[in-house]
From TrEMBL:
This is RsmB/NOP family class I SAM-dependent RNA methyltransferase. PROSITE patterns: NOL1_NOP2_SUN, SAM_MT_RSMB_NOP. InterPro entries: MeTrfase_RsmB-F_NOP2_cat, MeTrfase_RsmB-F_NOP2_dom, RCMT, RsmB-like_ferredoxin, RsmB/NOL1/NOP2-like_CS, SAM-dependent_MTases_sf. One of its GO terms (molecular function) is methyltransferase activity. Keywords: Methyltransferase, RNA-binding, S-adenosyl-L-methionine, Transferase.
């Protein structure tokens, strides 16, 4: 590709992302490149790098451009990124846009040049609002302040860094040491993760999907924080387990391994495509104690299984504010409206899932959000509605889970009632996890059973 064509492709990719603000940017990028197979791998890398650099800094680039009275078009965003972050001079950027060719952007017009001429690095300015200095959308500020307090700047900085690649050794096929050795034999150095007894960390990006260890099902890609949630679910051999929001079965896989393939897991979700993907992953990993169930409006599945499960995991749909290292576009894709909608949905899902837990069983509630409204507040509200549940404090839940595994890792990732992970404090994505135990023998109340299609728990 000529430099002009690369620039044009970058603007086109960013426009595609901007035109589909509700879709994850990586899905848009994959589709973009699939439709342009003529773009070779090095051009693809260059185009992606610049587009993602804009996405990561979209909030602040936006502010800088609007301050100058400019609408942040894809062209201007790319050009501003080059001026403010790419080390490009104004003349160089103007020249890049002036190159001719069959696949070239139109030259910058007078207004665009005026705006770019007024931009001075660095990108971050003292007069920016605090949330932008921290590269955070304004609607998360109360929740982030409540969660992190004085550590907010460190937390925000760590959320902007690249995430490592975490793997989980599949104990149905190997041990953690066995997985380490298999990866090392392929020239992929990994180190054990500090908390998860199954975890391996790879510092730099490696083509893991193409490795033999991955293809043979010895390892799964899974952030250490996700592994810890599956660990706290404390699923043991012979148990009956529901993974109520199973998605692509990341945690089902981990629980199947801790159950040594004995007992039964039902992986539920409202998304048929996700459950199809889940079934494929379960086969590859050698899991044969799990089935999938598609939750549909009017479905009596949950009602028929009231109080039957030893473990119910709710890995709830959430704003994903803990995953911004991996999904930087989610900062701009998600808003306060989504938060309010999700809080309502989480509450309904929790009610439904709680009714499945047998007396003496555990309900494990998790999100990949760091916002207290989606986390502690949901648990407190559930406890008010369902007093038969009690919180199992983190240290206690941790010991119970590890004792069942016969594992020697004894440092729990935190104190207090709940597990609250974050990149700056634990090196994981941001996660929340609460373990609740159902204490009494009474049958669950009827208002938590399956309702008709207007029920937000199945929407
Ligand atoms: C955080 S993701 C789950 C990720 C998955 N547990 C994993 O580890 O790979 C949340 C999932 O909840 C599902 N979901 C959304 N609404 C739901 C509902 N009402 N009942 C059950 N699952 C729901 C979504 O389809 C999504 O797959």
């Amino acid at each position: 590709m000529t430099p002009a064509a690369r620039l044009a492709a970058t603007v086109a990719l960013l426009s595609a992302m901007e035109d589909q603000p509700r879709r994850p940017a990586d899905a848009v990028a994959n589709e973009f490149f699939r439709a342009r197979r003529y773009i070779g791998s090095s051009d693809r890398r260059a185009v992606s790098e610049r587009a993602w650099a804009v996405v990561r800094e979209r909030l602040r680039l936006d502010w800088r451009l609007r301050k100058l009275g400019a609408e942040p078009t894809a062209r201007l965003l790319v050009a501003a990124q080059m001026v403010l972050m790419g080390g490009g001079s104004l003349q160089g950027v103007v020249a890049a846009f002036s190159e001719q060719g069959p696949y070239a952007e139109a030259p910058l017009d007078a207004e665009e040049r005026r705006v770019l001429a007024a931009l001075r690095p660095p990108l971050v300015r003292a007069e920016m609002p605090e949330n932008l200095r921290l590269n955070l959308p304004d609607w998360v500020m109360p929740g982030f302040q409540a969660r992190f307090g004085d550590a907010l700047p460190a937390a925000a900085e760590a959320m902007a860094e690249a995430a490592p690649l975490d793997l989980r050794a599949n104990l149905l096929k190997t041990t953690r040491d066995g997985a380490l050795a298999a990866l090392a034999a392929e020239g992929i150095p990994a180190t054990p993760t500090p908390f998860s007894p199954w975890g391996l960390r790879i510092a730099d990006r490696r083509p893991i999907l193409a490795s033999k260890a991955f293809r043979d099902g010895l390892v799964e890609i899974q952030d250490e924080g996700s592994q810890l949630i599956a660990l706290l679910a404390d699923a043991r051999p012979g148990m009956r387990v529901a993974d109520y929001c199973a998605g692509a079965a990341g945690k089902t896989l981990a629980m199947a391994a801790s159950m040594n393939n004995r007992g039964r897991i039902t992986a539920c979700d409202v998304s048929a495509p996700r459950l199809t993907g889940a079934a494929q992953r379960l086969r590859r990993a050698g899991v044969d104690n799990a089935e999938t169930h598609l939750l549909e409006a009017g479905d009596r599945w949950a009602k028929r299984r009231a109080a039957q499960f030893d473990r119910v995991l709710v890995d709830a749909p959430c704003t994903g504010t803990g995953t911004w290292r991996r999904n930087p576009d989610a900062r701009i894709r998600t808003g306060e409206f989504d938060l309010n909608e999700l809080v309502t949905k989480q509450r309904a899902i929790l009610d439904r899932a709680a009714s499945l837990v047998r007396p003496g069983g555990k309900l494990v509630y998790a999100t990949c959000s760091v916002l207290p409204e989606e986390d502690e507040a949901q648990v407190q509200n559930l406890l008010e509605r369902r007093p038969e549940f009690r919180v199992v404090p983190l240290q206690e839940a941790w010991k119970q889970s590890l004792a069942a595994l016969g594992s020697v890792v004894d440092t729990a990732p935190g104190e207090g009632d709940f597990m609250a992970l974050a990149p700056h404090s634990h090196g994981t994505d941001g996660f929340f996890c609460a373990v609740l135990e159902r204490t009494e023998v009474a049958v669950p109340r009827s208002d938590t059973t399956t309702r008709a299609s207007s029920d937000p728990a199945v929407t």
